[in-house]
Design a protein that fits this description.
This protein is 43% helix and 17% strand. The chain is of the alpha/beta class.
Length: 178
């Protein structure tokens, strides 16, 4: 499905202030796809996210079924996410890769973390709070971190697709009698 919908694929990642969609808030969301990368920020343009996502047919996340999408559904009760969703966490697990996004990036050798080395999800909360206290550089860093997470999903999906393709065609290739 991915090759047919590559131009209509939305790679998405969110940052929040907590782990529960009922007590935490969505602070930053980046959507990478359709030849563009766009970041939405709470109290600025986050309200535009649902309409923007409506242009896409395939949603790609890492642990999005358990985290990103539930947060967005609470934040936007009328949200209509793209009709198909590929959660790379579960896809990669089936391929034998486990762990968090950054660990998998390292193991398979993809992704670019330039400028956001050493930042993890828990730092996103701190950066947002610093921004709310007036440190604008913290928002810039948070956005850069979120964009790296989001944009790195594309080469991870390319990797996973190649692995699946290879396994499928290797398993289906006819065996010649000996």
């Amino acid at each position: 499905m991915y090759p047919e919908f590559r131009r209509e694929t939305a790679f998405l990642d969110i940052e929040t202030t907590g782990l529960s969609p009922y007590s935490g808030i969505v602070t930053v969301v980046t959507v990478h796809g359709g030849g563009r990368t766009r970041t939405f920020i709470a109290d600025d343009d986050l309200e535009e996210l649902p309409a923007y996502l409506g242009r896409f047919q395939l949603l790609v996340t890492f642990n999005g079924r358990m985290f990103d999408v539930p947060f967005l559904e609470v934040r936007f009760p009328n949200l209509r996410p793209p009709p198909a969703h590929a959660d790379l966490r579960f896809l990669l697990h089936r391929l034998g890769y486990s762990g968090g996004l950054k660990r998998i990036e390292q193991v398979i050798g993809v992704g670019d973390r330039t400028g956001v080395e050493g930042i993890y999800g828990r730092d996103a909360v701190r950066l947002w709070e610093e921004f709310r206290r007036g440190q604008t550089a913290s928002l810039e860093r948070l956005v850069q971190y979120n964009r790296a997470d989001t944009m790195n999903l594309e080469p991870i999906l390319d990797f996973a697709f190649a692995q699946i393709h290879s396994r499928l065609f290797r398993e289906r290739s006819p065996r010649l009698p000996e």
